[in-house]
Amino acid sequence: MNEAPIIVQNVSRSFGKTEVIRDLNFSVKPGSIYGFLGRNGSGKTTTLRMLAGLIKPQAGEVRIMGNDPFTIGAKERQWVGYLSEKPIIGFMSVRGILKLSQRLYPSWDAALADALLAKYNIKANQSILKLSQGNQRLASFIATIATRPKVLMLDEPAANLDVVARREILDDILQLIRDCGCTVLFSTHILSDVERVADEIGILAKGTLQVSEPLDALKDSIRQVRFFGFRNGMPNGDIPESFRCVRGRDELLLTLRTHSLTTPETLAQRWGCQQETRTLSLEDIFVELSRN
Amino acid sequence: MSKTKQLFALFQFSQTMNFYVWIIAFMTAIPYLIFVFDRSSYSPSLSLLTSNQTYYFIMFYGAGLVLPELSIFGFKNQATGGGADFLLTRAVDRHLVFRARSALFYFVVVIIPGLAFLCALSFPELRVSEYDKLVRDAILTHIDGAQYHREGYSDILTIPHGHALVAAWSLFCGIFLVLMTQTVLVLLARVPFRTFIFFALTFSIVFSPLFVFSRSSIHSINFTENAFLHFAQHPVLWTSLLAVAVVASQLWCERRFRKMEL
Lengths: 292, 262
Hints:
The complex is a heterodimer.
Chain A: E1 6-15, E2 18-28, E3 33-38, H1 44-51, E4 59-64, H2 74-77, E5 80-83, H3 94-104, H4 110-119, H5 133-145, E6 151-155, H6 163-180, E7 183-188, H7 191-197, E8 200-205, E9 208-214, H8 215-221, E10 222-228, E11 242-247, E12 251-257, H9 264-271, E13 274-279, H10 282-290
Parallel strand pairs in A: 3-7, 3-8, 5-6, 6-7
Antiparallel strand pairs in A: 1-2, 1-4, 8-9, 10-12, 10-13, 11-12
Chain B: H1 3-17, H2 21-29, H3 33-37, E1 41-42, H4 46-50, H5 57-66, H6 78-81, H7 84-88, H8 94-121, E2 126-128, H9 133-142, E3 147-151, E4 154-159, H10 162-188, H11 194-215, H12 223-233, H13 235-258
Parallel strand pairs in B: 1-2
Antiparallel strand pairs in B: 2-4, 3-4
Helix pairs in contact in B: 1-8, 2-8, 5-8, 5-10, 8-10, 8-13, 9-12, 10-13
């Protein structure tokens, strides 16, 4: 059996009257990196917190390595790494945090932890409180990655980090995958990070997943098309094939998923008009899919 | 990793994250200094012995210690201060996180009264020179071996093992208050207006002695004295009941905590 290590199935979640996640579905293949994109408040952190077992879905189910993350014990948790968006604030030293982790994880890689401390230039004896926000994040990252997880979930790993540290974190994630075939799910706003490392991406907007597919396929399949010169007038009503539709006086600007049945050419033929197609960068795709 | 090792690691983590509790432990210790410095008598009455005002701190810091995730004081960072997100996503059994916090809570509250109790065992006899007549009669009726005699100009009430009984009573109250605090916190965890309810409850307990003392008269024994007398009459029974309550509430709280969203 080669079940996906991370599965989110028909999940919905509200807080009070605010619906944050609605009927969310995706899975992450073993050994792959899944970039989870979305605007602020789109539900990324809520999804990751459900996967980390901090909160429960109100409908549907989430599975981590075949288990319900909310009910798993220490034994099953050993293989799941989670980096929260909240830093560890406390009076412990970095060494204290790492020692605690070492005691909880038989798979703890002390050499890796020491190497990363040296690489990021973090003093082990310093109190977590006295570190900068970026270094607090890095210390949490080290405490998570040195457990050698099989599934790693990172909530905004690059938040508050400079560009060099960000690159290094991404390199470390890739190294971890090379070393032990770890499966990674990470949320971010930084699209260049996703483009550098992600095999597959999901874009979350308004509580639902707009797309979830390999990065290259996504870039190939989404196009912005300008339809103009309508001989029989512009089509009225919703256009189901489009993610976004902007109507001008004599033209229609659509963001489309193009596949064999719905190509810009077939639509232009159906509407009796001309078309002009533009490829989109990941940032363009993200903006088009996330914009209200 | 064995559960014991895990619990010990979590206990260490909790106490490092909340080192301020040691300051509070010292504050609650102040009334117990009497067991060290004053070995012979107490005054003016037994009611001062049987109620410990500093115990009310327990309810306040208990909230930050046992369930920091509730942000009962309204600080959003309290949860991260307790390291909740980090801790609950490590390789730990969830209920052991609560057990470790509870253990620290009990330890902080019990350590000083416990030492005072051990100290009191070395000079168990209690001699009280100033007291209420009603209290004196009640003590003579309820506590085996209690005697009353004149010594010079004073009427002395002597209670064999009285020191140990009063120290044990303080220990009993401390444990009971910890038990109640954590049970109430877990009960309130998902209730709307929990902060308001918690503070209302805490302040009513803090100010209840004013009400109790204003209602009591020279013709009656107040609540704390009465409770102490019951305890002194049946110490084994009350201690056994408390032990059962501690275990039952602990298991119940852990079960609730395991299912709790944080």
